[in-house]
Amino acid sequence: MLIIAPLDPFTASFDSLLEESKLEGQRMLVRLRDNWHSGVNRFALPGERLNGVFCLDDHHQRRLVATGGRNIDPYSHQQRAGRIRHLYVTHALRRQGIGQLLMAHLIDGASLYFNYLNTHAPQAAYAFYQRLGFEPVSGDESVTHRLMF
Question: Sorted alphabetically, which Pfam families does this protein's record hold (predicted)?
């Protein structure tokens, strides 16, 4: 069973997902943890959310298998620009719809706060974002794709 719920870097099993991401050469969960601890970004402003996808095992223990957040875009000068941040799915469960499920949750209700959502995706994730309706963006170093509302 999968559950989407709020999370923070103190959530049980966050550290194991962080270590996996570091072994893959990814830094998004390191930035998430560091920005949370410094107070730079705690996903606490209107329209923001930080969620995880948790698997329940046979003993009803939750294990974090994916993270993702929605923020006010710190790289944009537009007041109603949002940003998808720190999307990461554990390697063992990729291509099983977990990222799509989490993204649907992050997109849901976003238009109440934002005119669009930006992301800066690695090239390997371009097709994923485009399947979700994000359009490629050129000429902006901080944005690879945008979803308009």
Answer: Acetyltransf_7
